[in-house]
Protein backbone atom coordinates (compact mmCIF):
# COMPACT_ATOMS: atom_id res chain seq x y z
CA UNK A 1 0.00 0.00 0.00
CA UNK A 2 1.30 3.43 -0.85
CA UNK A 3 1.99 5.73 2.03
CA UNK A 4 -0.50 8.42 2.93
CA UNK A 5 1.89 11.15 1.86
CA UNK A 6 2.45 9.60 -1.55
CA UNK A 7 -1.32 9.43 -2.06
CA UNK A 8 -1.95 13.00 -0.90
CA UNK A 9 -2.16 14.43 -4.43
CA UNK A 10 -4.29 11.47 -5.50
CA UNK A 11 -6.93 12.58 -3.00
CA UNK A 12 -6.66 16.30 -3.69
CA UNK A 13 -10.00 18.07 -4.12
CA UNK A 14 -9.43 19.22 -7.69
CA UNK A 15 -7.64 15.99 -8.66
CA UNK A 16 -10.76 14.07 -7.64
CA UNK A 17 -13.30 16.62 -8.85
CA UNK A 18 -12.40 17.31 -12.46
CA UNK A 19 -12.79 13.73 -13.75
CA UNK A 20 -16.06 13.45 -11.81
CA UNK A 21 -17.22 16.64 -13.48
CA UNK A 22 -16.39 15.30 -16.94
CA UNK A 23 -18.15 12.04 -16.09
CA UNK A 24 -21.26 13.82 -14.78
CA UNK A 25 -21.22 16.21 -17.72
CA UNK A 26 -21.25 13.28 -20.11
CA UNK A 27 -24.01 11.55 -18.16
CA UNK A 28 -26.03 14.74 -18.32
CA UNK A 29 -25.23 15.04 -22.02
CA UNK A 30 -26.53 11.50 -22.45
CA UNK A 31 -29.80 12.47 -20.79
CA UNK A 32 -30.02 15.64 -22.86
CA UNK A 33 -29.38 13.87 -26.15
CA UNK A 34 -31.97 11.28 -25.18
CA UNK A 35 -34.44 14.05 -24.38
CA UNK A 36 -33.78 15.92 -27.63
CA UNK A 37 -33.99 12.79 -29.75
CA UNK A 38 -37.05 11.47 -27.94
CA UNK A 39 -38.69 14.89 -28.31
CA UNK A 40 -38.54 14.33 -32.08
CA UNK A 41 -40.80 11.33 -31.47
CA UNK A 42 -43.32 13.27 -29.35
CA UNK A 43 -43.69 15.33 -26.17
CA UNK A 44 -45.65 12.40 -24.75
CA UNK A 45 -42.59 10.21 -25.16
CA UNK A 46 -40.53 12.80 -23.30
CA UNK A 47 -42.97 12.74 -20.42
CA UNK A 48 -42.77 8.94 -20.26
CA UNK A 49 -38.96 8.98 -20.23
CA UNK A 50 -38.92 11.64 -17.51
CA UNK A 51 -41.38 9.79 -15.28
CA UNK A 52 -39.61 6.46 -15.87
CA UNK A 53 -36.32 8.10 -14.93
CA UNK A 54 -37.78 9.02 -11.55
CA UNK A 55 -39.00 5.46 -11.04
CA UNK A 56 -35.60 4.03 -11.94
CA UNK A 57 -33.95 6.51 -9.60
CA UNK A 58 -36.19 5.39 -6.76
CA UNK A 59 -35.42 1.73 -7.33
CA UNK A 60 -31.67 2.21 -7.76
CA UNK A 61 -31.46 3.43 -4.16
CA UNK A 62 -31.98 -0.20 -3.15
CA UNK A 63 -28.58 -1.22 -4.50
CA UNK A 64 -26.94 2.17 -3.92
CA UNK A 65 -27.48 1.54 -0.21
CA UNK A 66 -24.77 -1.11 -0.44
CA UNK A 67 -22.63 0.57 -3.09
CA UNK A 68 -22.60 3.92 -1.30
CA UNK A 69 -21.72 2.47 2.09
CA UNK A 70 -19.00 0.32 0.55
CA UNK A 71 -17.52 3.32 -1.27
CA UNK A 72 -17.20 5.42 1.89
CA UNK A 73 -15.59 2.53 3.78
CA UNK A 74 -13.13 1.85 0.94
CA UNK A 75 -11.81 5.41 1.21
CA UNK A 76 -11.70 5.21 5.01
CA UNK A 77 -9.86 1.87 5.04
CA UNK A 78 -7.33 3.03 2.47
CA UNK A 79 -6.78 6.17 4.54
CA UNK A 80 -6.01 4.03 7.58
CA UNK A 81 -3.74 1.76 5.45
CA UNK A 82 -6.02 -1.30 5.67
CA UNK A 83 -5.91 -2.22 2.00
CA UNK A 84 -7.08 -5.82 2.37
CA UNK A 85 -10.23 -4.71 4.18
CA UNK A 86 -10.87 -2.14 1.43
CA UNK A 87 -10.48 -4.88 -1.20
CA UNK A 88 -12.93 -7.21 0.57
CA UNK A 89 -15.45 -4.41 1.04
CA UNK A 90 -15.25 -3.54 -2.66
CA UNK A 91 -15.92 -7.15 -3.70
CA UNK A 92 -18.92 -7.52 -1.39
CA UNK A 93 -20.33 -4.17 -2.48
CA UNK A 94 -20.24 -5.10 -6.17
CA UNK A 95 -21.66 -8.59 -5.62
CA UNK A 96 -24.55 -7.50 -3.40
CA UNK A 97 -25.46 -4.48 -5.54
CA UNK A 98 -25.56 -6.53 -8.74
CA UNK A 99 -27.75 -9.18 -7.12
CA UNK A 100 -30.24 -6.54 -5.96
CA UNK A 101 -30.20 -4.93 -9.42
CA UNK A 102 -30.96 -8.27 -11.06
CA UNK A 103 -34.03 -8.78 -8.87
CA UNK A 104 -35.31 -5.30 -9.76
CA UNK A 105 -34.73 -5.96 -13.46
CA UNK A 106 -36.91 -9.06 -13.40
CA UNK A 107 -39.71 -7.15 -11.67
CA UNK A 108 -39.66 -4.22 -14.12
CA UNK A 109 -39.48 -6.44 -17.18
CA UNK A 110 -42.44 -8.49 -16.00
CA UNK A 111 -44.77 -5.80 -14.62
CA UNK A 112 -44.21 -2.38 -16.26
CA UNK A 113 -47.93 -1.51 -16.41
CA UNK A 114 -48.32 -1.98 -12.66
CA UNK A 115 -45.83 0.81 -11.98
CA UNK A 116 -47.41 3.06 -14.59
CA UNK A 117 -50.81 2.82 -12.93
CA UNK A 118 -49.21 3.31 -9.52
CA UNK A 119 -47.86 6.65 -10.77
CA UNK A 120 -51.21 7.81 -12.17
CA UNK A 121 -50.01 7.56 -15.76
CA UNK A 122 -52.77 8.25 -18.27
CA UNK A 123 -54.04 5.42 -20.48
CA UNK A 124 -52.82 7.08 -23.68
CA UNK A 125 -49.22 7.08 -22.39
CA UNK A 126 -49.28 3.52 -21.12
CA UNK A 127 -48.20 1.79 -24.40
CA UNK A 128 -45.08 3.97 -24.62
CA UNK A 129 -44.43 3.41 -20.92
CA UNK A 130 -44.59 -0.37 -21.27
CA UNK A 131 -42.05 -0.38 -24.10
CA UNK A 132 -39.59 1.87 -22.30
CA UNK A 133 -39.84 0.49 -18.75
CA UNK A 134 -39.83 -3.20 -19.66
CA UNK A 135 -36.67 -2.85 -21.75
CA UNK A 136 -34.61 -0.22 -19.93
CA UNK A 137 -35.85 -1.50 -16.57
CA UNK A 138 -35.05 -5.06 -17.60
CA UNK A 139 -31.42 -4.01 -17.99
CA UNK A 140 -31.26 -2.17 -14.67
CA UNK A 141 -28.85 -4.77 -13.30
CA UNK A 142 -26.28 -3.20 -15.65
CA UNK A 143 -26.87 0.14 -13.95
CA UNK A 144 -26.32 -1.60 -10.61
CA UNK A 145 -23.01 -3.01 -11.81
CA UNK A 146 -21.86 0.32 -13.22
CA UNK A 147 -22.83 2.17 -10.04
CA UNK A 148 -21.14 -0.30 -7.69
CA UNK A 149 -17.99 -0.71 -9.78
CA UNK A 150 -17.69 3.02 -10.45
CA UNK A 151 -18.20 3.91 -6.79
CA UNK A 152 -15.58 1.40 -5.66
CA UNK A 153 -13.00 2.51 -8.24
CA UNK A 154 -13.68 6.19 -7.56
CA UNK A 155 -13.13 5.81 -3.82
CA UNK A 156 -9.68 4.30 -4.38
CA UNK A 157 -8.82 7.76 -5.69
CA UNK A 158 -9.08 6.74 -9.35
CA UNK A 159 -11.76 9.06 -10.71
CA UNK A 160 -10.32 9.02 -14.23
CA UNK A 161 -11.31 5.45 -15.15
CA UNK A 162 -15.06 6.04 -14.61
CA UNK A 163 -14.66 9.28 -16.58
CA UNK A 164 -13.13 7.59 -19.62
CA UNK A 165 -15.70 4.81 -19.41
CA UNK A 166 -18.42 7.46 -19.41
CA UNK A 167 -16.93 9.03 -22.53
CA UNK A 168 -17.05 5.74 -24.40
CA UNK A 169 -20.52 4.84 -23.15
CA UNK A 170 -21.95 8.22 -24.14
CA UNK A 171 -20.36 8.25 -27.58
CA UNK A 172 -21.69 4.77 -28.33
CA UNK A 173 -25.14 5.58 -26.96
CA UNK A 174 -25.46 8.74 -29.04
CA UNK A 175 -24.40 6.94 -32.21
CA UNK A 176 -26.77 4.02 -31.61
CA UNK A 177 -29.60 6.40 -30.75
CA UNK A 178 -29.23 8.11 -34.09
CA UNK A 179 -29.18 4.81 -35.94
CA UNK A 180 -32.01 3.05 -34.12
CA UNK A 181 -34.47 5.89 -33.42
CA UNK A 182 -34.53 7.34 -36.92
CA UNK A 183 -33.47 4.29 -38.97
CA UNK A 184 -30.34 5.96 -40.38
CA UNK A 185 -28.07 4.13 -42.86
CA UNK A 186 -30.51 1.29 -43.34
CA UNK A 187 -30.93 0.44 -39.65
CA UNK A 188 -34.47 -0.30 -38.40
CA UNK A 189 -36.52 2.74 -37.37
CA UNK A 190 -37.49 1.67 -33.85
CA UNK A 191 -38.37 4.99 -32.20
CA UNK A 192 -38.57 4.74 -28.42
CA UNK A 193 -37.69 1.03 -28.53
CA UNK A 194 -34.44 2.05 -30.27
CA UNK A 195 -33.54 4.20 -27.26
CA UNK A 196 -33.85 1.16 -25.01
CA UNK A 197 -31.69 -1.05 -27.24
CA UNK A 198 -29.05 1.67 -27.47
CA UNK A 199 -29.07 2.19 -23.72
CA UNK A 200 -28.68 -1.48 -22.87
CA UNK A 201 -25.84 -2.10 -25.33
CA UNK A 202 -23.84 0.92 -24.13
CA UNK A 203 -24.38 0.01 -20.47
CA UNK A 204 -23.29 -3.59 -21.05
CA UNK A 205 -19.97 -2.49 -22.57
CA UNK A 206 -19.42 0.11 -19.82
CA UNK A 207 -20.01 -2.50 -17.12
CA UNK A 208 -17.46 -4.84 -18.73
CA UNK A 209 -14.82 -2.10 -18.89
CA UNK A 210 -15.34 -1.01 -15.28
CA UNK A 211 -15.21 -4.62 -14.11
CA UNK A 212 -11.76 -4.98 -15.68
CA UNK A 213 -10.55 -1.78 -14.00
CA UNK A 214 -12.01 -2.87 -10.66
CA UNK A 215 -10.17 -6.19 -10.74
CA UNK A 216 -6.84 -4.31 -10.63
CA UNK A 217 -7.77 -1.39 -8.37
CA UNK A 218 -6.22 -2.75 -5.15
CA UNK A 219 -2.75 -3.92 -4.15
CA UNK A 220 -3.71 -7.55 -4.80
CA UNK A 221 -5.63 -8.27 -8.04
CA UNK A 222 -9.17 -9.58 -7.69
CA UNK A 223 -9.93 -12.95 -9.28
CA UNK A 224 -13.39 -14.15 -10.25
CA UNK A 225 -13.26 -16.75 -7.46
CA UNK A 226 -12.85 -13.90 -4.95
CA UNK A 227 -16.45 -12.81 -5.56
CA UNK A 228 -17.50 -15.66 -3.29
CA UNK A 229 -15.88 -13.91 -0.32
CA UNK A 230 -18.08 -12.77 2.54
CA UNK A 231 -16.82 -11.15 5.75
CA UNK A 232 -19.68 -10.77 8.21
CA UNK A 233 -17.98 -8.04 10.27
CA UNK A 234 -17.05 -5.90 7.27
CA UNK A 235 -20.47 -6.36 5.67
CA UNK A 236 -22.01 -5.22 8.93
CA UNK A 237 -19.91 -2.03 8.69
CA UNK A 238 -21.13 -1.51 5.13
CA UNK A 239 -24.73 -1.94 6.21
CA UNK A 240 -24.41 0.34 9.25
CA UNK A 241 -23.24 3.20 7.05
CA UNK A 242 -25.24 2.20 4.00
CA UNK A 243 -28.79 1.69 5.23
CA UNK A 244 -29.29 5.26 6.50
CA UNK A 245 -27.60 6.47 3.33
CA UNK A 246 -30.05 4.41 1.31
CA UNK A 247 -33.05 5.74 3.23
CA UNK A 248 -31.76 9.26 2.64
CA UNK A 249 -31.35 8.70 -1.09
CA UNK A 250 -34.63 6.87 -1.43
CA UNK A 251 -36.42 9.62 0.48
CA UNK A 252 -35.20 12.19 -2.02
CA UNK A 253 -35.98 10.04 -5.04
CA UNK A 254 -39.42 9.05 -3.79
CA UNK A 255 -40.22 12.68 -3.06
CA UNK A 256 -39.25 13.51 -6.64
CA UNK A 257 -41.31 10.58 -7.84
CA UNK A 258 -44.31 11.89 -5.90
CA UNK A 259 -43.76 15.32 -7.41
CA UNK A 260 -43.73 13.82 -10.90
CA UNK A 261 -46.97 12.03 -10.05
CA UNK A 262 -48.44 15.42 -9.01
CA UNK A 263 -47.26 16.86 -12.33
CA UNK A 264 -48.92 13.97 -14.16
CA UNK A 265 -52.13 15.00 -12.40
CA UNK A 266 -51.65 18.56 -13.69
CA UNK A 267 -51.20 17.36 -17.27
CA UNK A 268 -48.78 16.19 -19.97
CA UNK A 269 -47.51 19.73 -20.64
CA UNK A 270 -46.51 20.28 -17.01
CA UNK A 271 -44.82 16.88 -16.98
CA UNK A 272 -42.84 17.68 -20.13
CA UNK A 273 -41.90 21.17 -18.84
CA UNK A 274 -40.49 19.72 -15.62
CA UNK A 275 -38.55 17.09 -17.59
CA UNK A 276 -36.97 19.76 -19.80
CA UNK A 277 -36.15 21.98 -16.82
CA UNK A 278 -34.66 19.04 -14.96
CA UNK A 279 -32.26 18.54 -17.86
CA UNK A 280 -31.20 22.20 -17.86
CA UNK A 281 -30.82 22.25 -14.08
CA UNK A 282 -28.60 19.18 -14.25
CA UNK A 283 -26.14 21.09 -16.44
CA UNK A 284 -26.35 23.97 -14.00
CA UNK A 285 -25.46 21.88 -10.96
CA UNK A 286 -23.06 19.27 -12.33
CA UNK A 287 -19.78 20.99 -11.36
CA UNK A 288 -21.14 21.63 -7.87
CA UNK A 289 -22.05 17.96 -7.64
CA UNK A 290 -18.52 17.02 -8.69
CA UNK A 291 -17.02 19.08 -5.86
CA UNK A 292 -19.50 17.62 -3.37
CA UNK A 293 -18.66 14.02 -4.33
CA UNK A 294 -14.94 14.76 -4.40
CA UNK A 295 -15.35 16.29 -0.95
CA UNK A 296 -16.97 13.08 0.30
CA UNK A 297 -14.15 10.88 -1.02
CA UNK A 298 -11.43 13.18 0.31
CA UNK A 299 -13.14 13.63 3.69
CA UNK A 300 -13.56 9.86 4.13
CA UNK A 301 -9.88 9.28 3.30
CA UNK A 302 -8.69 12.01 5.68
CA UNK A 303 -11.02 10.75 8.40
CA UNK A 304 -9.64 7.23 8.04
CA UNK A 305 -6.13 8.68 8.33
CA UNK A 306 -7.13 10.60 11.51
CA UNK A 307 -6.47 13.95 9.79
CA UNK A 308 -9.65 15.45 11.20
CA UNK A 309 -8.69 19.13 11.07
CA UNK A 310 -8.00 18.90 7.35
CA UNK A 311 -11.26 17.01 6.85
CA UNK A 312 -13.21 19.77 8.65
CA UNK A 313 -11.74 22.72 6.77
CA UNK A 314 -11.69 20.88 3.44
CA UNK A 315 -15.46 20.44 3.47
CA UNK A 316 -15.98 24.20 3.78
CA UNK A 317 -13.50 24.82 0.98
CA UNK A 318 -15.48 22.50 -1.30
CA UNK A 319 -18.71 24.23 -0.25
CA UNK A 320 -17.44 27.73 -1.03
CA UNK A 321 -16.11 26.71 -4.45
CA UNK A 322 -19.33 24.87 -5.23
CA UNK A 323 -21.53 27.80 -4.21
CA UNK A 324 -19.61 30.16 -6.49
CA UNK A 325 -19.84 27.75 -9.41
CA UNK A 326 -23.55 26.85 -9.18
CA UNK A 327 -24.59 30.46 -8.58
CA UNK A 328 -22.73 31.55 -11.71
CA UNK A 329 -24.28 28.71 -13.71
CA UNK A 330 -27.77 29.55 -12.43
CA UNK A 331 -27.33 33.16 -13.56
CA UNK A 332 -26.20 31.99 -17.00
CA UNK A 333 -29.19 29.68 -17.28
CA UNK A 334 -31.50 32.52 -16.25
CA UNK A 335 -30.11 34.62 -19.10
CA UNK A 336 -30.35 32.03 -21.89
CA UNK A 337 -32.89 29.53 -20.55
CA UNK A 338 -35.70 30.54 -22.91
CA UNK A 339 -33.53 29.95 -25.96
CA UNK A 340 -32.34 26.59 -24.60
CA UNK A 341 -35.90 25.42 -23.98
CA UNK A 342 -36.59 26.09 -27.64
CA UNK A 343 -34.17 23.32 -28.57
CA UNK A 344 -36.41 20.79 -26.84
CA UNK A 345 -39.92 21.82 -27.83
CA UNK A 346 -41.84 24.25 -30.01
CA UNK A 347 -44.91 24.16 -27.75
CA UNK A 348 -45.26 27.77 -26.45
CA UNK A 349 -47.14 26.65 -23.35
CA UNK A 350 -44.33 24.32 -22.28
CA UNK A 351 -41.68 26.98 -22.97
CA UNK A 352 -43.67 29.52 -20.94
CA UNK A 353 -43.89 27.16 -17.98
CA UNK A 354 -40.14 26.53 -18.11
CA UNK A 355 -39.27 30.22 -18.32
CA UNK A 356 -41.38 30.95 -15.23
CA UNK A 357 -39.12 28.62 -13.21
CA UNK A 358 -35.76 30.14 -14.20
CA UNK A 359 -35.81 32.83 -11.48
CA UNK A 360 -36.65 30.27 -8.80
CA UNK A 361 -33.70 28.21 -9.98
CA UNK A 362 -31.42 31.02 -8.74
CA UNK A 363 -32.45 30.05 -5.20
CA UNK A 364 -32.70 26.30 -5.75
CA UNK A 365 -29.14 25.66 -6.92
CA UNK A 366 -27.20 27.31 -4.04
CA UNK A 367 -29.56 25.63 -1.55
CA UNK A 368 -28.83 22.24 -3.15
CA UNK A 369 -25.09 22.91 -2.99
CA UNK A 370 -25.16 23.72 0.73
CA UNK A 371 -27.16 20.62 1.49
CA UNK A 372 -25.14 18.27 -0.69
CA UNK A 373 -21.59 19.42 0.16
CA UNK A 374 -21.92 19.27 3.94
CA UNK A 375 -24.37 16.38 3.86
CA UNK A 376 -21.81 14.34 1.91
CA UNK A 377 -19.11 15.37 4.38
CA UNK A 378 -21.24 14.06 7.25
CA UNK A 379 -21.81 10.82 5.36
CA UNK A 380 -18.08 10.48 4.76
CA UNK A 381 -17.34 10.34 8.50
CA UNK A 382 -20.16 7.89 9.15
CA UNK A 383 -22.80 10.33 10.43
CA UNK A 384 -25.37 8.92 8.01
CA UNK A 385 -28.21 8.55 10.50
CA UNK A 386 -28.43 12.30 11.07
CA UNK A 387 -28.73 13.04 7.35
CA UNK A 388 -31.33 10.27 7.17
CA UNK A 389 -33.46 11.70 9.99
CA UNK A 390 -33.57 15.20 8.56
CA UNK A 391 -34.25 13.80 5.08
CA UNK A 392 -37.26 11.86 6.31
CA UNK A 393 -38.61 14.91 8.12
CA UNK A 394 -38.00 17.55 5.48
CA UNK A 395 -38.70 15.62 2.31
CA UNK A 396 -41.87 13.97 3.54
CA UNK A 397 -43.40 17.12 5.03
CA UNK A 398 -41.93 20.00 2.99
CA UNK A 399 -40.90 18.54 -0.38
CA UNK A 400 -43.81 16.14 -0.79
CA UNK A 401 -46.64 17.21 1.50
CA UNK A 402 -46.36 20.93 0.86
CA UNK A 403 -45.88 20.34 -2.89
CA UNK A 404 -49.26 18.66 -3.03
CA UNK A 405 -50.84 21.34 -0.86
CA UNK A 406 -49.48 24.32 -2.81
CA UNK A 407 -49.16 22.77 -6.25
CA UNK A 408 -52.41 20.78 -6.43
CA UNK A 409 -54.75 21.79 -3.61
CA UNK A 410 -54.00 25.53 -3.64
CA UNK A 411 -53.67 25.58 -7.44
CA UNK A 412 -50.17 27.08 -7.66
CA UNK A 413 -49.04 24.37 -10.08
CA UNK A 414 -45.36 24.22 -11.02
CA UNK A 415 -44.52 27.44 -9.15
CA UNK A 416 -45.86 26.09 -5.87
CA UNK A 417 -43.99 22.82 -6.27
CA UNK A 418 -40.71 24.61 -6.97
CA UNK A 419 -41.13 26.80 -3.90
CA UNK A 420 -41.47 23.69 -1.76
CA UNK A 421 -38.39 22.13 -3.36
CA UNK A 422 -36.37 25.23 -2.47
CA UNK A 423 -37.67 25.25 1.11
CA UNK A 424 -36.74 21.57 1.53
CA UNK A 425 -33.15 22.11 0.35
CA UNK A 426 -32.72 25.19 2.56
CA UNK A 427 -34.00 23.48 5.71
CA UNK A 428 -31.77 20.46 5.25
CA UNK A 429 -28.83 22.67 4.27
CA UNK A 430 -29.09 24.72 7.46
CA UNK A 431 -29.32 21.59 9.61
CA UNK A 432 -26.28 19.87 8.07
CA UNK A 433 -24.32 23.12 8.40
CA UNK A 434 -24.98 23.23 12.14
CA UNK A 435 -24.17 19.54 12.51
CA UNK A 436 -20.84 19.84 10.67
CA UNK A 437 -19.86 22.87 12.72
CA UNK A 438 -20.49 20.81 15.87
CA UNK A 439 -17.79 18.31 14.69
CA UNK A 440 -19.34 15.44 16.67
CA UNK A 441 -17.76 12.55 14.77
CA UNK A 442 -14.49 14.38 14.18
CA UNK A 443 -14.02 15.11 17.90
CA UNK A 444 -14.95 11.52 18.74
CA UNK A 445 -12.29 10.26 16.34
CA UNK A 446 -9.69 12.61 17.86
CA UNK A 447 -10.45 11.35 21.37
CA UNK A 448 -10.21 7.74 20.20
CA UNK A 449 -6.89 8.44 18.52
CA UNK A 450 -5.51 10.12 21.64
CA UNK A 451 -6.65 7.20 23.80
CA UNK A 452 -5.00 4.67 21.49
CA UNK A 453 -1.78 6.69 21.50
CA UNK A 454 -1.79 6.89 25.29
CA UNK A 455 -2.43 3.16 25.66
CA UNK A 456 0.35 2.37 23.21
CA UNK A 457 2.78 4.60 25.14
CA UNK A 458 1.85 2.99 28.48
CA UNK A 459 2.27 -0.53 27.09
CA UNK A 460 5.84 0.35 26.14
From TrEMBL:
GO terms for cellular component: plasma membrane. It is a multi-pass membrane protein. The keyword Transmembrane helix applies. CDD domains: MATE_like_8. It is found in: Cell membrane. The chain crosses the membrane at residues 12-31, 51-74, 86-109, 129-149, 161-181, 201-218, 238-266, 318-337, 349-365, 386-406, 412-433. GO terms for molecular function: antiporter activity; xenobiotic transmembrane transporter activity. PANTHER family: MULTIDRUG AND TOXIN EFFLUX PROTEIN MATE FAMILY, NA+ DRIVEN MULTIDRUG EFFLUX PUMP. NCBIfam families: matE. This is MATE family efflux transporter. It comes from Cohnella faecalis. The lineage of its organism: Bacteria, Bacillati, Bacillota, Bacilli, Bacillales.
Amino acid sequence: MKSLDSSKDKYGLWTLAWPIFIEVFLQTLLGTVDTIMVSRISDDAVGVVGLAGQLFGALTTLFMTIAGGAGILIAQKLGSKRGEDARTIGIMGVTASTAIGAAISVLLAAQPAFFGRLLNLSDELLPLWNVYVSNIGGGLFLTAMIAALGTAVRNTGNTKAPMFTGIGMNALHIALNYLLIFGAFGFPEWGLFGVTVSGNISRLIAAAVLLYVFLYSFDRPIRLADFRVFDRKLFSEIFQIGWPLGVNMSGWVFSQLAIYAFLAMLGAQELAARTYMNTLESFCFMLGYAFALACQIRTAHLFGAARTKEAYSGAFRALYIGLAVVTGNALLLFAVGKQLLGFFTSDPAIVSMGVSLLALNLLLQPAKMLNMALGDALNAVGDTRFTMYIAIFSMSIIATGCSYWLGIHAGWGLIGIYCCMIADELVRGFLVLQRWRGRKYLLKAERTRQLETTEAALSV
